[in-house]
Amino acid sequence: MITLTWIELQKMFKKWRTYIGFIAIGVLTLIVQVALYYTGEKYLKFEMRSLSDSFIFTGKLFNGYLVANLVLQGLFVHIPFLIVLVGGDLLAGEATAGTYRMLLTRPVSRLKVISAKFFAGIIYTSLLLFWLALISLGGSLLIFGGGELLVMKSKLIIFASNDILWRFAYAYAYASLSMATVMAYSFFFSSLVENAIGPIVATMALIIILLILSAIPVEFLQNLQPYFFTSHMIKWNGFFDDVVNYKDIFNSVWILLANIAGLFAITSAIFIKKDILS
Amino acid sequence: MVGGFLNSEQIIEVRGLTKKFGSLIAVNNLNLNVYRGDVFGFLGPNGAGKSTTIRMLLTLIKPTSGDIKIFGESLIGKREKILRKVGAIVEKPDFYLYLTAYKNLEILGKISGANTSNKKIMEMLELVGLDKRYKSKVKTFSHGMKQRLGLAQALLHDPELIILDEPTTGLDPQGMKEIRDLIIYLSKEKNKTVFLSSHILREVEIIASRMIIINKGTAQVEGTVDELLKSDRVKVTFEVNKIQEAMEIIEDVTWKERFKSSNKNEITLELSKEEIIKLNKSFIEKEISVSAIIPVHSLEDYFLKITEGGEK
Questions:
Q1: Residue ranges per domain, chain A?
Q2: Are residues B206 and B263 in the same domain?
Q3: DSSP of A121-153, one letter per residue?
Q4: Using one digit for the tens of pLDDT, what is the confidence trace for A202-233?
Q5: Do B98 and B137 contact (CB within 8 A), yes or no?
């Protein structure tokens, strides 16, 4: 199993498309960092204009933590686009290339093959989020330095400098789980077709539709929200509340895990029974 | 022709194999037997169900009904154990185009549990004449080179049974000969059993010991190539220098009913071996030079007869 997963990773990282996500995140983060480097103070003043008359803020509020938080909030919606590029290709790519005929005539079970591919997809997702953490948090701390973290939600929260890193660590870990769910959906769609474009479009369409439905202020749709996986994907933000609602977060973690496990089971069942005609 | 002997050990045993795609019956109640050491020719026109059968033998698709035993064990229960001893090319060999020939073999070999040492992989590449291109990505390979790499991957784990689906398709005449020689070598020298699907009938005629012809998913005939081609009369073409004089001899009642066609300096007849000698003697007696006697009876005639018959 380890050998198979390692082989899948080797195949994955020999493909150009695998690096698109890393390059895109690197470039976008760098652009945000450069932009904030020159206009960040102005941005902070603008955001806090209504409070500056009533409060005096001391210390260095414009720092690496703030930039990392802004990057995470800004890019999180778009990372699924990068995940599906690889997830959608995991199975359909083999069908398109005709390599199933080589791969599935080997003395190894289909369950092992699909598990290896799935694990490789999860590892890719984790690496992508690790890369995001490294350059958005690590890079921003190097460029802008540390300090207190200012979070602007429905209220203004300022976290002490010794109360921040663990929040980021959990947020990135949770974000990895969210993106693993996206990967699982694209993996599922990938098992249904023989062209990688289909799963990419289908996964993104599903995410967009669910996000739109979540945003419509109709009671019926609002009641459906807890059943949309997209509603649970954004719970990483909960680690930046003054009092973290662990119950709510763990509930979402279980829902996302159930989505992943369910999708893997369905995909495996489809894949094992599938006639290879490509 | 290689093999040609019947060993009692059955390597492939197919009973009542059927595959339906909706209302289409791709393979219908197929039975076949392949014995150790056989080069087994699997013949049929396009759409006859050859590739579907091969895909079922390799577990790429599931039969609707029927039973497949390979090495005496059921393919359903012992899939992995069986496939460890099987090497195959299914239709055109498709590889990971973005990887080198070497890396493709290494990956596929590792999955098969084969020896993937540098020496072994280079040996295989040398066997198929690709050792000098081991670093090249497969996307730069011609179809023929991919076909040869396909053979290398099929042989890498030293399988006992080699299943080849149209292995010479897309190769130039030299490449075709090399592959045929390799199949003969594998059968004769390495005692491999080869299941060979081909649309090149001459190929099967040359290298197969036994064969089956299928049409519309149904087996038409099965047996040794010798048995199937055995006939009292064969079609031969005489190449002569005096066609008029030769035709006068053919006008004789003895030969007239054997006559098939003529053109320029060629006369084609259906004759027994004794009759060929007799007619040749008659030509020589009349001072007609015979520059060639070309047999035109072949597996192709037989194949067409069988498959057309099947269609009727």
A1: 2-272
A2: no
A3: HHHHHHHHHHHHIIIIIIHHHHHH---PEEEES
A4: 888 888 888 888 888 788 878 888 888 888 88
A5: yes
How far is residue B295's CA from residue B312's CA, in Å, rounded to a whole number? 28
3-state DSSP assignment of residue A156: strand
B151-167: per-residue pLDDT in tens? Answer: 889 888 889 999 998 88
Q: Which of A8, A106, A111 to mutate to test the interface with B (most CBs of B within 10 A)?
A: A106
Kindly write down the DSSP assignment for every residue of A24-46, as one continuous string: HHHHHHHHHHHHHHHHHHHHHHH
In a shared domain, residues B161 and B202: yes
Q: Does residue B165 lie within any of the structural domains?
A: yes
State whether B96 and A14 contact (CB < 8 Å): yes
Amino acid at A260: I
Q: What is the mean pLDDT of residues A42-48?
A: 70
Alpha carbon separation from B153 to A38, A138, B94, B102 (Å, rounded): 57, 45, 11, 10
Provide the residue range defining the domain that includes B276. Answer: 234-296
Q: What is the pLDDT of residues A14-35, one digit of tens each?
A: 888 889 889 988 998 888 888 8
Taking an 8 Å cut-off on Cβ atoms, the answer to whether B79 and A100 are in contact is no
| Chain A residues bordering chain B (beta-carbon distance below 8 Å) | 3-4, 7, 10-11, 14-16, 97-109, 273, 275-277
A-chain residues near B76 (CB < 8 A)? none
- Inter-chain contact B80–A109, Cβ cutoff 8 Å? yes
Asked if the Cβ–Cβ distance from A104 to B60 is below 8 Å, we say yes
CA distance B205 to A62: 82
Amino acid letter at A121?
A: G
